[in-house]
Request: fold
Amino acid sequence: KDGIQYVRSELYLTMAKNCYLYSWFPVLMTAASPIFHETFMDAGEPVGGGRFLGYSSMRNSKYGYWNREQIILDFHRGETKRFPQTDIDKMASRYLHLLVRYASLSDDGTLLGLTTYDRTTVNLNVDGTVQTMLLDPNMVLLERKFISQYPRAAVKEQLALSRRFTLAHECAHQILFRLEPENVKNSLRGQYSQRRQYDCRTLKTKEDWNEWQANTLGAAILMPRVYIAQYFEQFQKNEPLISYGGKYAARERLAIAHLTGFFGVSRRMLEIRLRQLGLLHDLPRWQYFDPCEI
Reply:
């Protein structure tokens, strides 16, 4: 008897799971079909053989239902990433036409990337010796440790996340530069026109004037507002997260784990973006409260 009950339970749960996984299929078959009846059309509307001319379905035509806000559909069974990740490498190479190269930029590892707006020469420390490298205006130079081989998987993961944001940050510098008027562009290019050799840190400080802009735009590229807003609407009831002096309750910890996985970013980068959007509030640590803790 117990065996039969177990089989029944497994069968029921399997059916329930599949009904949930494939719930999109009936909607697709009934709403995305190009077949319709001619009486749905206005007089004079081009019709041919019971099909829309110019539309893929009744739902997608002017007669269909249209949402006010953008809805993100997810038909990927078993996928944990609900939102598409920005392919920052393709954006850099195909859209911005940037050439990404790697080199040792600093001894202490605090300088992770740089880019310039005109051709210049930079001094690099390679195995204890100083070597010069010519930087073109369409080049991004990233820290070599991003592609180094580390035995620990956790280190590799953190480096991959750091590399994504660093490349997005340098792409943001190039985007902001291209949006400037010509007189500002010429002024910025003039910083590199003396054909002198720079060390990496001196060269990086020439871009400090818009570092905060590049951080903001880089975060927006990797974490679009529309996707974050949808997540908070669906799962957080539009309630912001709370940081109690850097400590998070269970709700916040779960949301941060979800969002960092969805967008492929580190917790620090996510915190920056959420604060920009007003979705992360800071309270003193002594006010910490977690209803899940007993």
User: Anything to note?
Assistant: The longest strand covers residues 120-126.
